[in-house]
Amino acid sequence: MFLPLVVLLFLQAAAPAETVKSYLEWRSQQADQTNTRILYAKYREHLRQKGLSQAEIADAFRVIDIERWDTIYTNPTPIFNTAPNAFMVEVVKGLKPGLALDIGMGQGRNSLHLARNGWEVTGIDTSEQGMEIARKSAAAAGVKIATINIPMEEFDYGVGKWDLIVATYEGAGWREKAVQGLKPGGVVIVEGFLRGRGTPSGASFSPNELVKLFLDLNLRILRYEDVAGKPDWSPEPTGRVVRLCAQKPE
Predict the structure, then answer these.
(1) Residue 156: exposed, middle, or buried by beta-carbon count in 10 A (0-12, 13-18, 19+)?
(2) Cα 89 from Cα 238, distance rounded (Å)
(3) pTM score > 0.70 for this model?
(4) Taking 60 as the threshold, does the pLDDT of residue 41 lie above it?
(5) 86-247: which CATH topology?
């Protein structure tokens, strides 16, 4: 028996909402609801014990994570630095504008700065609501940015396309494909947490890890820092961050 198209569309729309609802109901019963990394690990185990396959668990977390970022980016009280990343601002002052890619663009804080300074910018993210804010901000500023709703792992970076790739607090799971997408002479800028207790696993690095990751891809390290400072994504007034600027050989 075939379901009417309208019913199918309703079920497709309702499924993500039910996935998020189930997670939120489970989370409300947890003693500590503040550490997302621990919550996610516990919920994965909860779903596994319920009999879900690895693919089903991955699909559930894809939906949960999108909802999480939509909520973060639409919160009227931001929990992150809404100004462009200071390290990126400093580095790009000495670069000739060209084609730039902003990985995990969110509300577009980095994309907008680049566009205002002559770069042709494409931003990717899974949060459509975050990107909608970025598009509105770009229109208000009289600049153009392109936005693509896609996970960084699935994006087609191309070959020899980008003059600049920026990824702040996004980990480095994109790096191999992205480096292929860099033009000879192109530059990549990365910033994240120095790994420690409570830092997000996907956006933190152990000492010198960034250097090794990009040396392994035959990039020239132009600058590396392991410094005390307030991370863009931390409520704490102080912390420790790692920063890297590397260039693809010409």
Answers:
(1) exposed
(2) 20
(3) yes
(4) yes
(5) Rossmann fold (3.40.50)
